[in-house]
Amino acid sequence: MDNLLNINQVAFILKVHPLTVRRYIKEGKLKAVKVAGNVRIKEAMLQDFNSKEFTPTPKEFPKFRLNKNPAKLFSKDDPFFRLQGRGASLHLSDK
Predict the structure, then answer these.
(1) Segments making up each domain of the chain, as ranges
(2) pTM of the prediction?
């Protein structure tokens, strides 16, 4: 006989919010049963869902772009260093 898990236990195992588990059930992605008015998920169903749902395919990996515009370095002529007033005592040291 399979172990029956409640929503919170499944959420803990999948590392998602309990409402996300309920959404999976509502969308039909995760099968659940009602026992005495309480929603339960069989452990075998959870393992089946986990193997299908969270196995990424190579096309799902994000493609990173290299930044074509490198960061601009601050200089003494930058308006940021000409600020005056309270807390604007930042000075650029000469090295």
Answers:
(1) 4-55
(2) 0.54
